[in-house]
Amino acid sequence: MTYAEQDSGPATPPDAAPEAAARRDWAWRRLAPPIGPLLLAATREGLVQVAFHADDRTTRRALTRLEQFFGGPPLTGIPHLTTATAELTAYFAGELRSFTVPLDWSLSSGFNARVLHALADGVPYGSVVGYQDLADRVGEPGAARAVGAAMGSNPLPVVVPCHRVVASDGGIGGFGGGLETKRLLLALEGVLPAPLF
After folding, report:
1. Strands 38-43 and 47-51
2. N or C: which end of the chain has fewer CB within 10 A?
3. Which of residues 173 and 75 earns the better pLDDT score?
4. Which of 162, 165, 166, 185 is catalytic?
5. Active-site residue flag, 162
6. Positive or negative torsion for Cα 85, 61, 155, 169
7. Structure pTM?
8. Which alpha helices (H) appear in the chain, and where do they start and end?
9. Cβ atoms within 10 A of the Cβ of 54, count?
10. What is the reported pLDDT for 22?
């Protein structure tokens, strides 16, 4: 089964777009895994964005922002995009536990980037971490709420596993892709039981 789809149709203006940067090569693709459509974008440095719920409208908005951020239209392909597609397809098939695709962190900075790096480097497949514990890991013990905001800003969900961050009270916490998506990802990794139907 193939999950990938390339589309380079015209984009419509978003509500807000990041500041424009110097021209950088980038490309994109849609993937249709069991959790719903994802938009993947990559530069020559690595995977730069994974966006949930990538229907046509969401895709157009994301592409407009990326085109403005990278200073021009997408190319037809980037090698890291092919790698990301193959690895995510294997992950959703239960055949991959650790991503090796290089990551381009240019859509994240400051505290959020520090937290996301700690998450990517220190919370492996099949495990979870609390918001407070992640705040402690980055040397900001009073920043559990800010860690939640960092998870919401994650430009690389699934690959940078914000679904593995849970509430200290035993709840699964929030998730930008929706709680049902978070439950499905945690079930895929064996943290939660698989849904019955």
Report:
1. antiparallel
2. C
3. 75
4. 162
5. yes
6. negative
7. 0.85
8. 56-70, 79-92, 110-122, 131-137, 144-152, 179-188
9. 22
10. 76
